[in-house]
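Format notes (please read before filing issues)

Several people have asked whether sequences and structure tokens are stored in separate files. They are not. Every record keeps both together, in the order shown below: the sequence lines, then the token lines. Line labels are part of the format and must not be stripped during preprocessing.
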Amino acid sequence: MSVFNASRLQNKTVLITGASGGIGEATALLFAKAGSNVILAARRTEVLEKVKAACEAAHSESRIQAGGKFAAIKLDVSDKNAVANLWKDVPQELRDVDILVNNAGFVLGVERVGEISDTDIESMFATNVFGLISVTQALIGDFKKRQTGHFINIGSVAGREPYVGGSIYCATKHAVSAFTGSLMRELVDTPIRVTEIQPGMVETDFSVTRYRGDKSAADKVYTGLQPLVAEDIAEEIVWAAARPPCQPRPSLRTAGQPG
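Then the structure lines:
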């Protein structure tokens, strides 16, 4: 039994960053099964092509006639020039995006403050924060022009509950939450929807990246626990995307503004 109303997602065009694996890949497959069109964006193009093929197969197996158009584009969200030119590799028929899933993000290391390299700090902020903002800004003008659209930003429980050895990652996700909250309030009197998903511990390549490829160290993170898996978060994302159209709330526009 589906946890979402697939009919609301048919023929919708979805752009997913960080789509080459984990939550991004799982989300793409669910949208494909629902009859959406999907633009897969990530740095690893060779992996993206495999995800694209999997999406095509998933759509075919669903027997839904709607949607089924897919594109895989190389995109490093931390590269502002690449974001500015992201449409050059997107087919014209897929350029009216309905849903943006800002999923690209990662963590590096477990060092404590004072031991963290400048490179790691800059890399995490460049992707997790500046990249998310850049892609959002690249689409918001079109969303406003068409008076439709849905921003789905992938935050983290770490943005609310900091932990030892994760100061920079926690700070980036706190920034994502703050940015998302402001964006929602700026758009509350429009039909444009804004959602933040805050996963807890999810077993993907996330920890492998954190431990710089050390799979054994990454596996120990989940010892004695039953973490979420990518498909769990994908269901939440697609469920949120399938909600009925929202009603503008002009009275809430100034909520939280300093007086």
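For reference, the curators noted about this record: The helical segments are 22-33, 45-62, 80-84, 118-146, 167-187, 206-210, 215-220, 230-241. The longest strand covers residues 37-42.
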